[in-house]
Every structure is written in structure tokens, then in C-alpha cells.
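[09:14] KT: can someone run the structure on this one? pasting the chain below
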Amino acid sequence: MFVPHWLEIVSMISLLLGVVFAVWVACDVYRHRQPMAIMNFVWPITMLWAGPLGLYMYLSFGRAQTPHAMDGPSHSFSQRVAVGATHCGSGCTLGDLIAELFVVVVSVSVLGSHLLGTWTVDFVLAFVFGIVFQYFSIKPMRDLSFGQGLVAALKADTLSLIAWQVGMYGWMAVCFFVLFSEQTLAKSSPAFWFMMQIAMLAGFCVSYPVNAWLIKRGIKEAM
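[09:31] RB: done, C-alpha cells below
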């Protein structure tokens, strides 16, 4: 199935909104710095895939120096879980974005499949960036050494990262094997990146209950 013209238009609008919101939030966090420094990067990255939903979350309970800011007493458990999921997802988003651009330049195959090769690079980079993001939140919160911080980051985010990637891969599998194909849904198409936005939303939904469990068990810090 070819990508319909209307979907290309919707895709371009969604991508444009994501970029505009990311730029606006980046400027806003510069003026209203987050209590946790890594969140100054997490929120703009979240806008790239979450768009209007991400902006609503940021303005509702993510923006610093507001009644519902991250360090406010009215910040609910569900909101903390949502922020924890976006924190994990930002590392995944950055890793997946770099990976998708990398495989355009360097062809990677696994078991003779370019798609499996791409997903492998996606997972490796998403995992690395995700752990880095978690390290720079959990280390200062617990005042840990480098080694302790790295181990704590691995414990806190490994399951969450895997869940996020499973949700992302699940949606992209539907795109490639049911709705379109690797040929029709090319990376040069706005529709591909729109599908990636939806894939990140799927990753958020799958990782949300995992983050809730990790936080309840005290394995992961509430954001």
C-alpha cells in the first residue's frame, strides 16, 4: 500500500508541531530551569514525539516554578510515573533518532534483514542513551559514586527501556508488515517519521505500567 497524500499532509503538520513545541519548551526551560538538570533536555525531546500531549503534560505538571511543578506537593503518583516514562523515553527517542539516520548512511543487516539490523542499532543506542539519562538523574538524587550510579541506573531503567522498545517495535512492525512496507514507508517520507512519533507514544503506553511497578518497588526514583 502506498502512503496516501492526506497522510503525508497530516504527517508534515504533526512533525512541524513537534519541532515548534520542542523549540518553545527548550526556550522556556532556559528561563524556568528544572530542579533536576537532566529534565531540561527531557522535556524538549519529549515534544518531538508527543506534540500537543507533551506540551499539555509540561504545562500541567512539568514546568518549574508553577503550582504543579515537579517538586510541588500536589504532584500525583500517576504524574510522577508519566514523567518517569518520558524521562526513559527521551533516551530512547534520541537513540532511535540517531540510529535511524545512521543506517541511512551505513547499511546494517542482521540475519540478512535490513529491518532487523536497524532495530538492533536502534535498541543498542536507545539503551545507551536511556541509561545515560537515568544515570544523570539517579546519581545526584542519591549522591552516588560513578560505579554505584551506573549500577543503579541499570537496575532502574533496563526493564523500562525494554518495555518502551517493545511498544515501539510493535507499532513499527504493524506499519511495515500490515499497513505499508519498507519500500513504500521510506525514511525520506514524512509519513515514516509520523509513524515513529506514534511508535514512541506506543512505547510510552507500554512502559508506563513498568515504570509504575519500578517506582512502587523503590527500584526507580519518583521523578
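[09:33] KT: thanks! The first helix runs from residue 5 to 31.
[09:34] RB: yep, looked fine to me
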